[in-house]
Amino acid sequence: MAFRVVVRAGPRVDKTRAESLEAALALLEQRAQELSRTVRAETVDVRVRSYEPADQVAARVEVRGPQRLRPDVRAGVDVRGDGAVIPWIGGVSRTPLDGDDPYRALRRALTV
After folding, report:
1. What ranges do the domains of the chain cover?
2. In which element (H, E) is residue 15 found?
3. In whole angstroms, what is the distance from residue 110 CA to residue 23 CA?
4. I need a surface site. Which of 50, 71, 93, 106 has the fewest CB within 10 A?
C-alpha cells in the first residue's frame, strides 16, 4: 500500500505517491524546504485585524496513508508566510509538534 503526499501552495494542489512512510517523509521534507525558501506572504489587513506573514499558512505539505478511506497516518507541516515550518499530526484537529527540527519531530511522532 502506498502513502500519499499532498502539497497545497496557494491554489495549486499536487498529489504524489510514495511506497513507504520513510520515502513519503523524505518527499515531504524536500518539498517543504523548497517552499520555505520561495514562499513569502504580505501582511493582510482587514477592518478589525491585520494578519502578519507569521500568522498565515502559505503552503501545507501532508502525508496520508496507507489506507485511502481512513488513513492511519495523517501528518504534515505548515509553511508560514515568513518561511517558518510548523509540524503537526492529526486530521481535522491538528496537534502542533515541538522540537528544534520540524522534520525530526514529525519522524519521531510517526515512528513511535
Report:
1. 3-110
2. strand 12-18
3. 13
4. 93
